[in-house]
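Trying the structure run again after the queue cleared.
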Amino acid sequence: MPGYRALTQDREFRAVLVAHVVSVAGDQFARVALTVHVYDRTASAGLTALTYALTFLPDLLGGPLLSGLADRFARKRVMVAADLVRVALLLLMATPGVPLWVLAALLVQVQFAGAPHGAARAALLPQILPDERYPLGQAVMGTVTQVAQVAGFLAGGALVAWLGPGLVLVADAATFAVSALLAGVFLLPRPAPHSPHVRAWPADLVGGARLVWHDRPLRALVALACVSGFYIVGEALAAPYAAGLGAGPAGVGMIFGAYAAGAAAGMLLLARLGERRQLRLMPWLAIAACAVLIPVALRPGLPVSLVLFALSGAASAYHLTANTRFVRSVPDASRGQAFGLAVTALRVSQGVGVALAGTAADTLAVHQVVAAAGALGVLAASGAAVVWWLSAGPSRSGGSSPSGAASRSDGRDGRQRRYG
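Done. Tokens:
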């Protein structure tokens, strides 16, 4: 199996990786800047929280409605166009004196523009890495995303204090300009999977939904991904959990860091295993990501809690395997739309899980809520694992999926490759 060093020899992957890191960090800059900006202007915690929530909510609609653009147009052009749209919108947001309702509307549009970009990047990566490097590439992308998010939040606070919210939004716009430049210069031109006039937009959406719903292994993979709605509770309630331990803001940062560090380490280790071992471990890791939160019911101290949260993050690396399997199993012509629908399901599960946990934490102790979410997550993950075992058949051991191999173009020399 090729090592990580081999990835650095592919200039397309380097360009995608750097562009992704830069834009992810810039997104965190913007989130910090917006929350500070709104709170400074309104002194309202509710409006500040609503503004932060707006950076996630558009994914629920953007995934199914806009991800299909990655299948109808050349994916390189989709990525560049989405980045340029976000540059323009962020510069408008940075304009002094913009009313709050206009700021919120522009923010929603920025997030909408991210949906086709993410779908195009996910669909393009198997063409850039059409061999055993693909799982390693996924691991690197996932790891740097975790690091960029943490670094972006930390640097974003310092930048806002130094430059002010407006200039930080300009800095975020600059990150998307860099991303567009890298994609435009270094990505090879590849034709669209099919003509934009071959299928109407509703047919793309319905076809992608049918593809995922009627393919039992794909449904099982989506179900395993949605288990994150349970173990994410520990991260979502980091502030009250740390307060309950008397840890304060420093404890909140440690909890976020434990999850991120665990996830990064888990993905790097899992990617070194062969496909068969990854597939065997995938359902068990989904169960473990929730199970390690159950001991939180005993209200351990901060050090033990950090270990448990880090273990949960490490086990959540099974998403690497699920994502890789899902993308490889979907035909190239529908990959963007199917990926967008899967991301929407993931976001819904996380949003519902966080909302229910937050409501429960108003009446129950936070450590009890986290432990209960872990216990319920074990049940949900076990059910998803059974569905996977029953539907995947030989693919549990790395064989062919019952739904058949997905044919796709290599994108470099036109050869067709097939994946089980």
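The CA atoms of residues 25 and 148 lie 5 Å apart. Worth checking whether this holds up in the mutant runs.
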